[in-house]
Amino acid sequence: MSDPGERVGITILGSGSGGNAIAIHSARETLLVDAGFSARELRRRMEASGVDERSVRAVLVTHEHSDHVKGLRVLAEQLAVPIYANRGTAEVLRSRDTKLGKLVIFAPGSPFSVGEFLVEPFTIPHDAYDPVAFVVKHGPVKLGIATDLGHVNHLVSHQLQACDALVLESNHDLEMLRNSDRSWSLKQRIIGRHGHLSNEAGLDLLRQVLHERTRHIVLAHASRECNDYGLVETGLRRCLAELGREDIDWQVATQDEGARTVWVTHSAFPLSSLLG
Ligand SMILES: [Zn+2]
Ligand SMILES: [Zn+2]
């Protein structure tokens, strides 16, 4: 049985094409999702956000892009924790860096436990070797984390149903991307079905998965050149007003600093309403 006073924190240590890392923490244990800053910077951001690095049990990897794995080897070494990745991602990481430490292989679609957490990895469409997103459960609490996806398919919207807290991608404003001085091919890559979700597409996903038990939303992976945090905020605020969900706690994660910790309590949603 879980303690109704128990809570789980989600702290985005930073998010965007320049680096991504998320800490999911209980009173005793922490999981990191990605390590896309230098180890020194990750440790600095953990300390600044009040995440105790001694509580880290593992680093879970979504995919091999450098904005997700930049500090992976050094951080895992320094904290003496295993790296969790699926086979495809692990092979790419190993081929790039033979000194990579202990790797634990998971299979998308097969849940696994790390300490107090139950992790459900699922495949997402993105231009990486074998990219995944995660649902993480702690007692009755369900967290959904999905960035770096080109489009939303049935699997993605199915996996993210009924989450207490959601971290979703809001990568670019289409107009700003079109007007940016990026090459045509890069624009096509970002907009493509294996690229990134635009602000509109991110909100469409939110509309599909928002549940009465959802209490917290973080929009993440906003592009520095092709997006604007104010624009993302305005869109989200408007969307929540339309849905009559102004009660929801929300924020937009930024690149340069860690975000305010989202606290999800075990008692946030009565268990009885999930049964039957
Ligand atoms: Zn990324
Ligand atoms: Zn990526």
- Compute the separation of the termini in Å: 19 Å
CATH-derived topology: Metallo-beta-lactamase, Chain A
Order of helices and strands: EEEHEHHEHEEEEEHEHHHEHEE
What strand line-up does the widest sheet have? Answer: 6-5-4-3-2-1-14
> Average pLDDT value?
95
In the CATH classification, which architecture applies?
A: 4-Layer Sandwich
Portion in strands: 25-35%
Structural class of the secondary elements? alpha/beta
Condensed summary:
Helix content is 28%, strand content 26%. With 276 residues, it is an alpha/beta fold.
Notes on the structure:
This protein is of the alpha/beta class. It has one domain: Metallo-beta-lactamase, Chain A (4-Layer Sandwich), CATH 3.60.15. Helix content is about 30%, strand content about 25%. The strands form 2 sheets. The chain has a 7-stranded mixed β-sheet with strand order 6-5-4-3-2-1-14. A 7-stranded mixed β-sheet has the order 7-8-9-10-11-12-13. Helix 1 crosses helix 3 and helix 8 runs parallel beside helix 9. The longest helix is centred in the last third of the chain and has 14 residues. The protein starts with 6 loop residues before the first strand and ends in an 11-residue tail after the last strand. The relative contact order is 0.16. The model has no long low-confidence stretch (mean pLDDT about 95). The site of one zinc ion (ZN) has 5 residues, from loops.
Core attributes:
276 residues; seven-stranded mixed β-sheet; 9 helices; binds zinc ion; globular; 28% helix; alpha/beta; Metallo-beta-lactamase, Chain A
